């Protein structure tokens, strides 16, 4: 098969799924092509972190610090009869079985692909390495149940 027909086939087979990218704090892995709807780095389906391993650098935050989380709806598949939601939680890598601590929950809406959302969250007084998990739960039988992204953060007091 020629390259052009393969490309056409690929674009026909790509379903219009909801996609999620976590921009700040920076998601694990890369953010290639996130200005395009349907970017491969925004379609991670595996809980809890889309199969992405910890990256070398964690951002440092203080206990009780407010932080603006920014994420992107990379591709829209809003179901208005059964809206999904976005959720941002903290997980402790040393307690993998523990319930993640939810910091933010926001309903999905008809906002188009590539919409950016920013919201304040407050860090708990839980020092150490934490994993910030963003989820896009679709509640949509015609899409995967959820998309995942994670970022590594380190919560520690700062003395000056
Ligand atoms: C929306 O969700 C309902 C209930 O889960 C489902 O029956 C319906 O097919 C969905 N609609 C679309 C457009 O995906
Ligand atoms: C979010 O959606 C849920 C369920 O669809 C609804 O009960 C709730 O009122 C919504 N919250 C906001 C802030 O719109
Ligand atoms: C976050 O909180 C700060 C301080 O209250 C406020 O100035 C800013 O507008 C908030 N940002 C968002 C995205 O809500």
TrEMBL record:
It comes from the Eukaryota. Keywords: Signal. Residues 1-18 form the signal peptide. PANTHER family: CHITIN-BINDING TYPE-4 DOMAIN-CONTAINING PROTEIN, COPPER ACQUISITION FACTOR BIM1-LIKE DOMAIN-CONTAINING PROTEIN. This is Reelin domain-containing protein. It comes from Plakobranchus ocellatus.
